[in-house]
Design a protein that fits this description.
- Chains A, B: InterPro entries: HTH_HxlR (IPR002577), WH-like_DNA-bd_sf (IPR036388), WH_DNA-bd_sf (IPR036390).
- The structure is a homodimer.
- In chain A, 56% of the residues lie in helices and 13% in strands.
- Chain A is of the alpha+beta class.
- Chain A has one domain: Arc Repressor Mutant, subunit A, CATH 1.10.10.10.
- In chain A, a hairpin with a 5-residue loop joins strand 2 and strand 3.
- The first copy, chain A, starts with 14 loop residues before the first helix and ends in a 5-residue tail after the last helix.
- The structure holds a DNA duplex.
Chain lengths: 118, 118
DNA sequence: CTGGATCCCATCGGATACTG
DNA sequence: CAGTATCCGATGGGATCCAG
């Protein structure tokens, strides 16, 4: 850990690798998806929508994504606490590429499913 | 391992997740990249271009990608053995989406680098 | 309500050595 | 040349409990 990865543990090899490091992991895509559909969600709303995620995974993923500039965290100083999350500009700009990839993935799935038919 | 992941260990949740499962991992992107630039490469050519990859990682990644229909393996029955790899149609169709993502990644890198200026 | 700390385990990536 | 087998350490994901 004494190399140039001191800052963010991301290897800056190429932009593509960089992008994959940012959106990789098990929960980031679902989070992006949920935030994209709902613009703004509170912590527990997010948690309920993602189903299966634990507090630790969610808060960890959110924090990392905030560091990358993907999501915005807005904390209201109230009792009980309220924290709202939403995508940044950069986060939204990512979505089209994701759709493109998803479209490709769908084609791949269809190919798999139609292997047995003439 | 007794669920519906019996076939390919890929969760079919959504096409995007599917896509990420296919191109995820440390070496698949570099391999796709190398094959896209060179159309066709032999095993050792590939290995030399990727630098740092071991036999095990390379052959394993190639086999998985072949299973997914991303690359084609062409073996010539000669002595010494010759095996050539190239991208399938599906593999090539993936590249534009990758470029899109890479472009986004580049923007992100630039933002990072220009934090201290202005 | 919104998290943090700790501990655990599965999986991934890899070094090394060997084979057809 | 083109891989495979084995073994191992690192890493990431997760359960559970705790805290402001």
């Amino acid at each position: 850990m004494n190399r140039e990865e001191t800052e963010s543990k991301v290897k800056n090899d190429c932009p593509l690798t960089y992008a994959f490091n940012i959106i990789g992991g098990k929960w980031r895509l679902p989070i992006i998806w949920a935030l994209w559909q709902n613009k703004t969600l509170r912590y527990n709303e997010l948690k309920r929508r993602i189903h299966g995620i634990t507090n630790m995974m969610l808060s960890q993923a959110l924090k990392e994504m905030e560091d990358y500039g993907l999501v915005v965290r807005k904390q209201y100083m109230e009792i009980p606490p309220r924290v709202e999350y939403s995508l940044t500009e950069a986060g939204m700009e990512l979505v089209p590429s994701l759709h493109s990839l998803a479209k490709w993935g769908k084609q791949m799935q269809n190919k798999r499913n139609s292997i047995g038919e003439a």
